[in-house]
Write a structure and sequence with these properties.
- It contains 14 helices and eleven strands.
- It has 405 residues and is α/β, with parallel strands linked by helices.
- The chain has two domains: 186 residues, Rossmann fold, CATH 3.40.50.450; 195 residues, Rossmann fold.
- A hairpin with a 5-residue loop joins strand 10 and strand 11.
Length: 405
């Protein structure tokens, strides 16, 4: 029977998925393998009728430049009780290629161990994907999709900034990011937004809506002092990850709740929450500044990949074959700035509970220090006299005092 590989995608979309699928498929087809694409990720894998796509060279070639994913994705995380050997044995699978985040990778490892215990030997290699850039790859290596999503975010963000200048208003932008602020930081720094708020900056104090609101007002008043009546503040949605349910509910938004009783944040606009609380505070301060919410999220995930990700995803896809030929399994494929391929084993990046560690923005790094010390606009002690025209107690809106820096 012909040897085969199977490719599946987990989690949410990111630019470059099709580029990875294409590159993996082409190099394995060349060597005589059957390439199976699996719709609906792990949700389909162990069913009686898995949804398959036979990937030939023409299909692989056609999808290379496309955004989205030719394989439908799923966030389903199967339990060990769902595992079966049938699919792998019936199709003579030699390699499971998973494209996704940490959950997708750890599940692939569990499946491989299950199969090995039953004398079904397959390799599994994971291609790390997320626009959040929060997987613990070697220093300087982004997750694929991040650079393309950031580029599109900068395109939209620059237009929003121009709208702010043209209309004389402010905009509050919320950007995706589960726990980390890479996307908001990258977009905000590239657009020269006067205020960038990410969870990592609260390294010496708790994250609250009050502090986020005061940080934005700090930038607004600093700009007013400089006779600039418009601007944009960007906030990473990752700040919610570090808030208690009580803090989130204090926003006054009517939430729906999941099975565990937690607010379902995916059903609401985070930008709307930030902007609503900001407008309430501005009215309390009798400061006449208009602001509008803008959400940056789903529109970034399925765009056509940029040149960076097209090349990067090609290397990762070809790297899968290189690692496979070396007999390597249970790893993520990585490619550094030189294009050198290397495996990164999950056991080396897991915490004591088996969860893959989140890569956060390094607030001690020179890039972050340059942006936060010299690139933003906010109130300091030297502004108190000028700011007292708008604020009763300017010290409450001092950027560094809010953060205890």
């Amino acid at each position: 029977m012909q040897n085969s590989i199977v490719i599946l995608c987990g989690g949410g979309p990111a630019p470059g998925i099709n580029s990875v699928i294409s590159s993996v498929a082409k190099v394995f087809l060349r060597d005589g393998y059957r390439v199976i694409g699996l719709h609906d990720g792990y949700k389909s894998l162990f069913t009686a009728d898995p949804k398959l796509v036979e990937i030939d060279f023409e299909l692989a070639d056609n999808i290379f430049h496309q955004g989205g994913s030719v394989l439908r994705m799923s966030r389903h995380k199967p339990s060990d009780l769902e595992f079966k050997t049938d699919f792998f044995v019936t199709n003579n699978v030699k390699l499971l290629v998973t494209i996704g985040g940490d959950d997708t990778a750890s599940t692939a490892n569990r499946i491989s161990k299950f199969l090995a215990d039953r004398k079904v030997a397959i390799q599994n290699i994971h291609v790390p994907k997320t626009i959040d850039n929060d997987l613990p790859l070697p220093e300087g290596n982004p997750t694929f999709g991040y650079q393309s999503a950031k580029q599109e975010g900068v395109r939209i963000g620059s237009t929003v900034y121009e709208d702010a200048r043209t209309s004389g208003n402010w905009f509050v932008v919320a950007a995706m990011g589960r726990e980390a602020g890479h996307l908001a930081f990258g977009i905000g720094a590239a657009c020269h937004f006067p205020m960038i708020i990410i969870p990592e900056m609260f390294n010496k104090t708790d994250i609250t809506f009050d502090k986020i609101t005061r940080l934005i007002i700090s930038a607004m008043i600093k700009r007013k002092i400089n006779n600039i009546g418009y601007g944009v503040a960007i906030v990473s949605e990752g700040v919610f990850h570090f808030m208690s349910d009580a803090e989130i509910e204090s926003s006054g938004i009517q939430f729906t709740y999941d099975d565990h009783g937690h607010p379902e944040l995916g059903n609401v606009s985070k930008a709307h929450i930030f902007n609503m609380l900001l407008q309430i505070r501005l009215k309390q301060l009798n400061i006449n500044i208009k602001s509008r919410p803008v959400e940056l999220g789903y529109e970034l995930r399925c765009i056509r990949p940029t040149a960076f990700d097209l090349m990067y995803c090609s290397l990762l896809g070809l790297g899968v074959k290189r690692l496979f030929d070396q007999g390597i399994t249970g790893c993520m494929v990585t490619s550094d700035h030189r294009g050198d391929i290397a495996p990164l084993y999950l056991k080396d990046v897991e915490d004591e509970s088996g969860k893959v560690k989140t890569r956060l923005v390094n607030m001690d790094g020179q890039k972050a220090r340059l942006v936060y010390e010299d690139g933003l606009q906010y109130l300091t002690e030297t502004d108190y006299v000028a700011a007292s025209k708008y604020l009763k107690d300017p010290a409450e809106y001092d950027f560094k005092k809010i953060l205890n820096w």
